[in-house]
Design a protein that fits this description.
Blueprint: H1 20-27, E1 35-40, H2 44-62, H3 69-75, H4 78-81, H5 89-101, H6 104-107, H7 119-128, E2 131-139, E3 142-149, H8 158-165, E4 170-175, E5 180-182
Antiparallel strand pairs: 1-3, 1-4, 2-3, 4-5
Helix pairs in contact: 7-8
Length: 198
Protein backbone atom coordinates (compact mmCIF):
# COMPACT_ATOMS: atom_id res chain seq x y z
CA UNK A 1 0.00 0.00 0.00
CA UNK A 2 2.95 2.35 0.43
CA UNK A 3 3.74 4.58 -1.34
CA UNK A 4 0.72 6.21 -2.86
CA UNK A 5 1.21 9.38 -4.80
CA UNK A 6 1.60 12.24 -2.39
CA UNK A 7 -1.39 14.58 -2.24
CA UNK A 8 -0.98 18.09 -3.51
CA UNK A 9 -0.70 20.48 -0.59
CA UNK A 10 -3.84 22.42 0.21
CA UNK A 11 -3.87 25.85 -1.33
CA UNK A 12 -3.44 28.70 1.10
CA UNK A 13 -6.74 30.15 -0.16
CA UNK A 14 -8.63 27.08 1.12
CA UNK A 15 -6.54 26.31 4.19
CA UNK A 16 -8.29 26.86 7.50
CA UNK A 17 -6.10 28.19 10.32
CA UNK A 18 -5.46 25.60 13.01
CA UNK A 19 -5.41 27.86 16.04
CA UNK A 20 -4.91 31.48 16.93
CA UNK A 21 -1.65 30.59 18.67
CA UNK A 22 -0.37 28.86 15.54
CA UNK A 23 -1.50 31.67 13.22
CA UNK A 24 0.03 34.35 15.44
CA UNK A 25 3.33 32.48 15.61
CA UNK A 26 3.50 32.24 11.83
CA UNK A 27 2.51 35.89 11.37
CA UNK A 28 5.14 36.92 13.89
CA UNK A 29 7.84 35.00 12.04
CA UNK A 30 8.24 32.41 14.82
CA UNK A 31 8.81 29.18 12.91
CA UNK A 32 9.61 27.26 16.09
CA UNK A 33 5.95 26.78 17.10
CA UNK A 34 4.73 23.51 15.62
CA UNK A 35 2.04 21.00 16.31
CA UNK A 36 3.43 18.09 18.28
CA UNK A 37 3.11 14.65 19.75
CA UNK A 38 4.68 14.82 23.22
CA UNK A 39 6.12 11.65 24.71
CA UNK A 40 8.28 10.15 27.44
CA UNK A 41 11.19 8.19 26.06
CA UNK A 42 11.63 4.50 26.84
CA UNK A 43 15.39 5.07 27.13
CA UNK A 44 18.23 6.41 25.02
CA UNK A 45 18.29 3.46 22.61
CA UNK A 46 14.54 3.68 21.94
CA UNK A 47 14.79 7.43 21.35
CA UNK A 48 17.75 6.98 19.00
CA UNK A 49 15.94 4.31 16.97
CA UNK A 50 12.78 6.43 16.76
CA UNK A 51 14.80 9.45 15.61
CA UNK A 52 16.64 7.44 12.95
CA UNK A 53 13.39 5.94 11.66
CA UNK A 54 11.65 9.34 11.75
CA UNK A 55 14.49 10.78 9.63
CA UNK A 56 14.03 7.98 7.06
CA UNK A 57 10.28 8.59 6.87
CA UNK A 58 10.76 12.39 6.76
CA UNK A 59 13.24 12.08 3.89
CA UNK A 60 10.80 9.85 2.01
CA UNK A 61 7.87 12.23 2.63
CA UNK A 62 9.92 15.27 1.58
CA UNK A 63 11.04 13.66 -1.67
CA UNK A 64 9.19 12.63 -4.79
CA UNK A 65 10.65 9.13 -4.55
CA UNK A 66 9.56 7.55 -1.27
CA UNK A 67 11.47 4.80 0.47
CA UNK A 68 10.62 1.16 -0.05
CA UNK A 69 8.15 -0.15 2.56
CA UNK A 70 10.08 -3.41 2.91
CA UNK A 71 13.29 -1.48 3.69
CA UNK A 72 11.51 0.55 6.35
CA UNK A 73 9.95 -2.60 7.83
CA UNK A 74 13.39 -4.27 7.87
CA UNK A 75 14.66 -1.40 10.06
CA UNK A 76 12.33 -2.48 12.88
CA UNK A 77 13.16 -5.18 15.40
CA UNK A 78 10.74 -8.06 15.99
CA UNK A 79 9.54 -6.34 19.16
CA UNK A 80 8.89 -3.07 17.32
CA UNK A 81 7.06 -4.93 14.52
CA UNK A 82 4.86 -6.69 17.07
CA UNK A 83 3.20 -3.35 17.86
CA UNK A 84 1.44 -3.45 14.49
CA UNK A 85 -1.57 -5.51 13.51
CA UNK A 86 -0.77 -8.27 11.02
CA UNK A 87 -4.12 -9.90 10.29
CA UNK A 88 -4.26 -13.20 8.40
CA UNK A 89 -6.74 -13.47 5.49
CA UNK A 90 -9.14 -15.30 7.82
CA UNK A 91 -8.83 -12.58 10.48
CA UNK A 92 -9.33 -9.90 7.83
CA UNK A 93 -12.52 -11.69 6.70
CA UNK A 94 -13.69 -11.74 10.34
CA UNK A 95 -12.94 -8.02 10.66
CA UNK A 96 -14.84 -7.25 7.43
CA UNK A 97 -17.83 -9.25 8.67
CA UNK A 98 -17.79 -7.31 11.96
CA UNK A 99 -17.42 -3.97 10.14
CA UNK A 100 -20.20 -4.51 7.62
CA UNK A 101 -22.59 -6.08 10.16
CA UNK A 102 -22.31 -3.05 12.46
CA UNK A 103 -25.05 -0.42 11.91
CA UNK A 104 -23.75 2.75 10.25
CA UNK A 105 -24.24 5.13 13.20
CA UNK A 106 -22.16 2.90 15.49
CA UNK A 107 -19.68 2.02 12.72
CA UNK A 108 -18.61 5.64 12.48
CA UNK A 109 -18.66 6.42 16.20
CA UNK A 110 -15.84 6.66 18.73
CA UNK A 111 -17.11 3.47 20.41
CA UNK A 112 -16.54 1.33 17.30
CA UNK A 113 -13.79 -1.23 17.80
CA UNK A 114 -11.02 -1.14 15.21
CA UNK A 115 -7.78 -3.07 14.74
CA UNK A 116 -4.43 -1.73 15.84
CA UNK A 117 -2.53 0.18 13.14
CA UNK A 118 -0.83 -2.03 10.59
CA UNK A 119 2.58 -0.89 9.36
CA UNK A 120 1.59 -0.12 5.76
CA UNK A 121 -1.46 1.91 6.86
CA UNK A 122 0.66 3.94 9.26
CA UNK A 123 3.13 4.78 6.50
CA UNK A 124 0.33 5.56 4.05
CA UNK A 125 -1.35 7.92 6.54
CA UNK A 126 1.94 9.73 7.20
CA UNK A 127 2.77 9.90 3.51
CA UNK A 128 -0.66 11.32 2.60
CA UNK A 129 -0.99 13.55 5.66
CA UNK A 130 -1.23 17.19 4.62
CA UNK A 131 1.67 18.28 6.83
CA UNK A 132 5.45 18.50 6.92
CA UNK A 133 7.39 16.40 9.39
CA UNK A 134 9.78 18.70 11.25
CA UNK A 135 11.90 16.96 13.89
CA UNK A 136 12.07 15.06 17.15
CA UNK A 137 13.37 17.37 19.87
CA UNK A 138 13.77 17.42 23.64
CA UNK A 139 11.30 19.57 25.54
CA UNK A 140 11.76 19.90 29.30
CA UNK A 141 11.99 16.32 30.65
CA UNK A 142 10.16 14.91 27.62
CA UNK A 143 10.46 14.83 23.85
CA UNK A 144 8.23 15.97 21.01
CA UNK A 145 7.65 14.87 17.45
CA UNK A 146 6.95 18.14 15.65
CA UNK A 147 4.92 18.53 12.48
CA UNK A 148 3.58 21.49 10.52
CA UNK A 149 0.08 21.13 9.00
CA UNK A 150 -0.77 22.96 5.78
CA UNK A 151 -4.42 23.38 6.82
CA UNK A 152 -7.31 21.49 8.30
CA UNK A 153 -8.23 18.67 7.93
CA UNK A 154 -4.73 17.33 7.46
CA UNK A 155 -5.19 13.64 8.28
CA UNK A 156 -4.96 13.55 12.07
CA UNK A 157 -2.29 12.46 14.54
CA UNK A 158 -3.09 8.75 14.94
CA UNK A 159 -0.32 7.57 12.62
CA UNK A 160 2.24 9.84 14.33
CA UNK A 161 1.21 8.49 17.72
CA UNK A 162 1.65 4.94 16.35
CA UNK A 163 5.11 5.88 15.06
CA UNK A 164 6.18 7.06 18.52
CA UNK A 165 4.55 4.15 20.38
CA UNK A 166 5.96 1.35 18.22
CA UNK A 167 9.42 2.13 19.61
CA UNK A 168 8.18 1.68 23.18
CA UNK A 169 7.75 5.35 24.01
CA UNK A 170 4.74 6.62 25.95
CA UNK A 171 2.70 9.42 24.37
CA UNK A 172 1.50 11.87 27.03
CA UNK A 173 -0.06 14.68 25.00
CA UNK A 174 -0.88 16.00 21.54
CA UNK A 175 -1.19 19.51 20.15
CA UNK A 176 -3.00 19.02 16.85
CA UNK A 177 -3.29 22.74 16.13
CA UNK A 178 -6.40 23.28 18.23
CA UNK A 179 -4.54 23.24 21.54
CA UNK A 180 -2.67 20.80 23.73
CA UNK A 181 -4.58 17.86 25.20
CA UNK A 182 -3.47 15.03 27.43
CA UNK A 183 -3.30 11.82 25.38
CA UNK A 184 -5.68 9.03 26.33
CA UNK A 185 -4.56 5.64 24.90
CA UNK A 186 -7.05 3.75 22.78
CA UNK A 187 -8.97 1.00 24.53
CA UNK A 188 -11.37 0.15 21.71
CA UNK A 189 -9.02 -2.17 19.82
CA UNK A 190 -10.68 -4.99 17.87
CA UNK A 191 -9.07 -8.43 18.16
CA UNK A 192 -9.90 -11.58 16.19
CA UNK A 193 -12.01 -14.11 18.10
CA UNK A 194 -9.19 -16.69 17.96
CA UNK A 195 -6.66 -14.15 19.26
CA UNK A 196 -5.53 -14.66 22.86
CA UNK A 197 -6.17 -11.69 25.15
CA UNK A 198 -2.93 -9.91 25.91
Amino acid sequence: MWPFKKRVAASSARAIPLSEKFAEAIAGGDSSVYCRVEFESNGERSLQRLTEFFDLVKTAKDSDEPADESQLLAFLTDGERSYFSNLTPEEMAEWNEYWFSTPLPKRHSAEMLSPQWDFASMLDAIWNGDYDLIAIRPRAARHVLEFNPHGYPYGGTGSLVALVECFGNQVVGVDDGTGYEKYVPRTNIWKPSASPDV
